[in-house]
């Protein structure tokens, strides 16, 4: 089965609402990365988070290794947050990433 | 300006034709990658290149080959393209593949349709 599973597959919010995106993995990891994919394709790295909690503006990433999960919290969502959020598991120190299927977020004004 | 470029951005080919996708980066990164993205499957690693002429298969290399003759260029080649190779292809690069974190920078993608 899939090594990295993301939920929900899609999410619709009203501007200002918060979002919690989940990533569960079934194998050991060296690190977990979160990416944002703009409508139209290009990917931007959001977090490299092997464990614990990291913050960047309105975004917070938390990885709990023993529970094999990572989450991305978006607070006070904005319409410009719309797009697809991908988590990716780095299985070992060889830089190969295994991606989840993504969460498609739509933030309505 | 740190950048990964991909050419072409859109391509339509017939089954059996050869396909060449080009990727360039201006950051002198050692490591470069080719991924494909299909709906609901995230990105899947096709090939990884650790430097010039130092390439390694990813998770789905079948039907693809790569060429890296200069550090800043990485090509993906489909010999006799198949309809199931219709996808969006992403190139990425990073500065270190070893035991340290290496942020991957992605290109804008190439949308390939094989008829």
Q: Would you write up a description of this structure?
A:
The complex is a heterodimer of chains A (about 110) and B (about 120). By secondary structure, chain A is an all-beta fold. In chain A, about 0% of the residues lie in helices and about 60% in strands. In chain A, the strands form 2 sheets. In chain A, strands 2, 4, 5, 9, 10 and 11 form a 6-stranded mixed β-sheet that branches. Chain A is globular, with a radius of gyration of 13 Å. The termini of chain A are far apart. The radius of gyration of chain B is 13 Å and the shape is globular. Chain B has no helices and 11 strands. The mean pLDDT of chain B is about 90. Chain B is an all-beta fold and about 120 residues long. At the A-B interface, strand 4, strand 5 and strand 10 of A face strand 5, strand 9 and strand 10 of B.
Sum up the structure in keywords:
heterodimer; A: 109 residues; mainly beta; six-stranded mixed β-sheet; five-stranded antiparallel β-sheet; 11 strands; B: 115 residues; seven-stranded mixed β-sheet; four-stranded antiparallel β-sheet; globular
Main sheet record of chain A: 6 strands, mixed
How many DSSP E strands of chain B? Answer: 11
Instruction: Classify the oligomer.
Output: heterodimer
Structural Rg of chain B: 13 Å
Please identify the structural class of chain A as seen in this structure: mainly beta
Instruction: Spell out the helices and strands of chain B N to C.
Output: EEEEEEEEEEE
How widely separated are the two ends of chain B? 37 Å
Helix content range of the residues of chain A, please?
Answer: under 10%
Report strand % of chain A: over 45%
Q: So what's the overall shape of chain B?
A: globular
């Amino acid at each position: 089965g899939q090594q990295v599973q993301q939920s929900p597959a899609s999410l619709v919010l009203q501007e200002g609402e918060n979002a919690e995106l989940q990533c569960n993995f079934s194998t050991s990891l060296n690190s977990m990365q979160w990416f944002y994919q703009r409508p139209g394709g290009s990917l931007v790295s959001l977090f490299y988070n092997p464990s614990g909690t990291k913050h960047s503006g309105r975004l917070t990433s938390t990885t709990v290794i023993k529970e094999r999960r990572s989450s991305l919290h978006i607070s006070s969502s904005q319409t410009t947050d719309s797009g697809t959020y991908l988590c990716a598991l780095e299985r070992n120190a060889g830089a190969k990433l295994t991606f989840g299927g993504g969460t498609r977020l739509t933030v309505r004004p | 300006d740190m950048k990964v470029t991909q050419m072409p951005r859109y391509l339509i080919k017939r089954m059996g034709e050869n396909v060449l996708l080009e990727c360039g980066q201006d950051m002198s990164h050692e490591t470069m990658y080719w991924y494909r993205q299909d709906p609901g499957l995230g990105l899947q690693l096709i090939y990884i290149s650790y430097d010039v002429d130092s390439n390694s298969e990813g998770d789905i290399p079948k039907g693809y080959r790569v060429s890296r003759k200069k550090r800043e260029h990485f090509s993906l080649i489909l010999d006799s393209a198949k309809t199931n190779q219709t996808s969006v292809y992403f190139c990425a690069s990073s500065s270190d593949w070893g035991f340290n974190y290496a942020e991957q920078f992605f290109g804008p993608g190439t949308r390939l349709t094989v008829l």
